[in-house]
Amino acid sequence: MSQDPVARLEVNVTDPPGAVVVSIRGEADHRQADRLGEALARILSRRPARLVLDLSGITFLSSVAIGMLVAFRSALVRHGGEVMVTGIPPHIAGTLHLAGLDGLLKLQSSERTATARKTKSPG
Prior knowledge:
alpha/beta
């Protein structure tokens, strides 16, 4: 049984009430940057009011992928949306903390908590 030399990355989008949920699973490394970027661009074009990034299935998050997530978050916020992150594995949470991004990203305990929050009022 041989392993695929290219790491697998899955990006699944669902639309439960209250948010668009993007579940990212696998390795988000430099080899998957284009795939991740294309998926995020498609989602950004929809301009959701609330987006939940579920990272519970992520096994690796490269600096390139982190940069894409931060740029995606900034673009969505500019369009009046908000991004929340759930399911961060401890090793990824440590990386985000060291990069100073845990304060930038709205971390939620679960997808249910994130989708149940009231949307921010226009201000």
